[in-house]
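Database export, one record per block. Field names are fixed; values are copied verbatim from the stored entry.
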Amino acid sequence: MAASTSTWSKPWLLSAWQLLFMLLFPSVFSTFAVAYRPGDIVPMSRMGQYHSSRTVWHDLIGRHCPIFAVNREVLMPIPKPTGYTGADPYKISFQVGREKFLIPWLLVVNRKSTEVPMIEVELRYSGNDFHGVTAKVVDMPHHYVEIHPEIRKQFWDSQHWPKHILVRYTWKEHSDIDVASGFYVLFGSGLMLSFILSIYILQSSREKLERFVRETVVESNMPGEVIAKVE
């Protein structure tokens, strides 16, 4: 009698189960790759634009970056742009996280305001996942300027660079549940599971049928007993 074939000896079946696992848990691999823990530094890079010229992306050091799930304020240095004359606005943009969420251009110098600018950054997260970021430029609170008057003085001094801008990082926790996407994932996974199980059942049935045929052929070829005819 032929030995039964192990499920794991079928490469096609093993690959099918691996595919099913990836469909059932589509975010497992990406979660391992980009998951954060509270207190982790969230990488951040900055680009500047003055006139029609832009800098390349520059990575910020850890003390100027967001800290995952931690609200805080930092004084971020803004370097002097090449060819700066003070006549045109100076804008900066950021990329945040390993996901590289983009903060569009923020006007920080020559923004037609008598107040020192401050950047408010709102970061959205759920569990260990970083979902997105928004930012805007506002006036620095007066009480902060009163405590640190040198910031105002240095900011309006055209010869003093780098400028220092207060950046406030605020984390907002969200519990976003996409019901429609979850339904489609479960429905598709169910179809795939049914397909794989059908193939497995057909394969097992074929093997049993082949084994039955082989055994029947062997038994039919065995010499039978001679039965005498009695009259």
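Remark 1: The helical segments are 11-24, 28-34, 142-147, 149-156, 179-221.
Remark 2: The longest helix spans residues 179-221.
End of record.
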